[in-house]
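Private note to self, pasted from the team thread so I don't lose it. Backbone tokens:
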């Protein structure tokens, strides 16, 4: 069975004190599990402190984005090696908010996926369609294309370690969740795309999350679905009790 992964994407929320309190509150309540792993992705200025606080506990730290170069004259950017040196293990790449507001493209996503693996970071690669694309029945075409381009020129051995997050844009922060069956259908299509590119073995190993208004009230049903291996959670990951409930719900097969 694929190990589930529940990742909290805090986006641009919380003060440093709130972030530290959250980490202190949850770290002792999470136990090492074969079934689920827990990740939090705080704002970049908090990464080091949270990585230190959670060291040795069953919670991992992820970044919300990064630059694809190891170093250079890129004012304001953070490199993959800087992240891994801080103790960061995951990095979200190609979130729809980055694609929409910060010129992230399939090409830059592809470069960042390569750079992440080279720096021992596991990429959480986000894909998803807009409402307009869904209504014109283009969902599978759009997400398959995003997956193909994100992984271009990578080997199956690398890709099987990646995490893919299917986040329909219309479901992010709107309270509208895709039905569990609809989400599973698209996650299945993503797995089929990985199979076509890299074979069944890689496709069976790659983990696919659903994201978009996931909450303690709807996560259980989503996780009953064959192709959904976890969740990338925004709003409901900000509160420590709610985050712990999400992990708890994912802790049983
Ligand atoms: O964008 C998301 C996670 O990356 C989803 O956000 P919400 O869970 O707030 O809808």
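Design output:
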């Amino acid at each position: 069975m694929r190990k589930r992964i529940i990742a909290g994407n805090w986006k641009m929320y919380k003060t440093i004190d709130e972030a530290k309190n959250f980490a202190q509150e949850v770290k002792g309540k999470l136990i090492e599990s074969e079934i689920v792993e827990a990740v939090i992705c705080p704002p970049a200025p908090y990464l080091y402190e949270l990585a230190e606080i959670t060291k040795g506990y069953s919670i991992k730290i992820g970044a919300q984005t990064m630059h694809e170069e190891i170093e250079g004259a890129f004012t304001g950017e953070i490199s993959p090696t800087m992240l891994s040196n801080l103790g960061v293990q995951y990095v979200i790449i190609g979130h729809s908010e980055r694609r929409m507001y910060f010129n992230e493209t399939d090409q830059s996503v592809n470069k960042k996926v390569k750079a992440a693996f080279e720096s021992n970071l596991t990429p959480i690669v986000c894909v998803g369609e807009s409402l307009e694309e869904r209504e014109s029945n283009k969902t599978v075409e759009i997400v398959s294309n995003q997956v193909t381009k994100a992984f271009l020129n990578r080997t199956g051995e690398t890709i099987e370690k990646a995490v893919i997050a299917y986040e329909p844009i219309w479901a992010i922060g709107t309270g509208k969740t895709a039905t569990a069956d609809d989400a599973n259908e698209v996650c299945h299509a993503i797995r089929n795309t990985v199979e076509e590119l890299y074979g069944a073995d890689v496709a069976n190993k790659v983990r696919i999350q659903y994201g978009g208004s996931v909450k303690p009230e709807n996560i259980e049903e989503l996780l009953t679905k064959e192709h959904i291996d976890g969740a990338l959670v925004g709003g409901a990951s900000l509160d420590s009790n709610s985050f712990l409930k999400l992990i708890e719900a994912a802790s049983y097969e």
